[in-house]
Model the fold of this input.
Amino acid sequence: MSGLHEECGVFGVFAEQPTDAARLAYYGLFALQHRGQESCGIVVNDDGLFVSHKDLGTVADVFTKETLASFPRGTMAVGHTRYGTTGGTNRANCQPIEVNHVKGRMAIAHNGNLSNAAELRSELELSGAIFHTSSDTETIAYLVTRERLTAPSIEEALIRAMRTLDGAYSLVLTSPSKLICARDPYGFRPLCYGKTPDGVYIVASESCALSAVGAEFVRDVMPGEVLVFSRDGVTSRREHCGAKPKKLCIFEYIYFSRPDSTIDGRSVHAARIDAGRILAETHPVDADLVIGVPDSGLDAALGYSRASGIPYDIGLIKNKYIGRTFISPDGRADQVNIKLSAVGEVVRGKRVVLIDDSIVRGTTSGRIVSLLRRAGAREIHMRVSAPPFLYPCFYGTDVDSRKNLIAVKHTPAEIAEMIGADSLGFFPTERLAELAGDRRFCCACFDGRYPTKTPDDSRKNRFETRLSERKEE
Done:
């Protein structure tokens, strides 16, 4: 709703005995659906035989009852739900990616963006590699399989490949006999694992997906850590741990993650409550009620209400049955009017504090303000639980250019006038540490301080564009 798109979600299953791994992955991906609705997929490992299904659409669209029944029982599974921040929306980019190589098979699912993907891809292409997708994940798969030629194990191949990877990656992969997960040394993207009462290990992007399959949270995967699940138990490889400063994406707390998740020991819900409290302290206003933009603005709105003493109410209703695939028959429908409706009885004649998680281009915010005006709101004071977006992100957030970021060229007062609000206040960048629980996080999209070398080309479809340019030549 805010104009910003989610990450991807990864999910893994390991059991010593064959189990309904596809069903577990299905429920897990449902819990991670908020992280991406473009496509999804599941690969089940049945004693080295890989059976997969993936396609464009949501989990409910792609996996019917008949599709799930076609999967064999297996000891391992890898699942993925995708919003592509690199690579176009097409079936070729659906994950998990499956690879047949001289040392065996592999299926891999990945969340995040490599900041040196273009450099690595060019190197691989010059050595003869042929790419079938335009996602960073295939680059990781190539590097792992290349290292596997001389490495004694698949986990050793991954550890060696990680020496050349830079940027964000939380990934899960399966070989014929192992499930392996890894988190980049910065820890940009979340990853955790748990265990069900009957001994099945679960790996997921967020802890909410563990709960969805009845698994008890064990711990977060550490930045730089590689975990190997096999019949020998769980092995932790920490060669890359501590190699880089921790830089968890602060937007996991503000927007990406589900409020019932805990990321690196910090409750997402509690972080958003604190965001609202800090907004109330830094941008107070006389008003009659506080409302939030569903869904990620609701917790911060509650926090603002508690801190300010202004009553909280439900002023906006989200139509949960319309997803990203909604198509207007005549092409003229306003997406905001279709997805959101104002509760006139609540906002009519009131001075409203409107809480949202971000303003990217300002278009959606303007439409929401207009919606509330038409419902009779007397004043609208917008408060945003994120600082202004001023810089592109190279690690997975769908902000690839400064040219469309409204805060780059306009002050808060100017933006308020542009979107029709009576006032506007952003979360103060200097207080972001209070959301993360420590000072070890990345907020480069707000302050321009990038932890890695930045790429020259950050466009989402840069690899497709490069391919089309070659065809023209």
User: Anything to note?
Assistant: Confidence is low (pLDDT under 50) at residues 324-332, 463-473. The domain at 9-247 is CATH 3.60.20.10 (Glutamine Phosphoribosylpyrophosphate, subunit 1, domain 1). Residues 115 and 453 are 7 Å apart (CA to CA).
